[in-house]
Structure formats: C-alpha cells, structure tokens
C-alpha cells in the first residue's frame, strides 16, 4: 500500500520545535531525531520521530505512511537516533503486517494526541482485525541498536 499523507501547515512548525528541543536533549514523550542518508542526494537528512519501546524492544512507526524518511531508511539500511549529544547507530528491521497490530495499538495509546488524525478514526481500542486491515499503510521498523554498516 502506497499510503502517504502530506504534512499540514502546522506540522512544519511543530516538527521544527520538537527537533530543536530533542537536539538540546529534551525528549518530548520519547522523541528522537532520526538521521538517515538520502537515497538520491546522499546527504544526511533529519526528522523528528517517536521512539516506542515495548518489552525492551524499540520501534519506529511512520504515521503518515510512505514518507521520505521511510524510503531513505529502507534504501540506506541504517540510521542514527539522536537525543542531545548522544547519537545511537541502528539497523532497521521492517515488520511484516501480521506483526504490526500490537505495535500500532501501543503507539496509538501513547501518541494518539499527536498522530491520531493520521489514523482516520482507528485508535488503541480498535480490534485486532481493524489494526491488521490498516497495517499495510503504516511502516513499522524494529530498531537493532549499535549495528549499522
């Protein structure tokens, strides 16, 4: 599924503010700055993301779908997560749709206030069947820290 939602007018300001605070070392509910090499330009690109932890495992969810950071991360096969001065290299492992419902449910429980509009009425109380149905539109990556090429 090639689902993608363009950023809205207020998203740029909000993302810039979160990115600025995260660079200073202030995490907004788990925020990090994702650094990944652009697949076309080769330049390092940055964007704020919400790092989710479930049972000691860390995940990135793309609530707007097939964004540039998702495409770049797939192409690069590695990235970095930054909070303040600390930068952690990682290898992304994309989850198959069947494994996404528990991650999507937890993500929505924690960040519905921020990203709920991208899920079009689906929330953490939605059934597993509904979460499986929407899973193809929401890329999810498990983070393998300390790896990278």
Automatic annotation (TrEMBL):
UniProt GO molecular function: oxidoreductase activity
Protein name, entry field: Deazaflavin-dependent oxidoreductase (Nitroreductase family)
Source species of the chain: Amycolatopsis endophytica
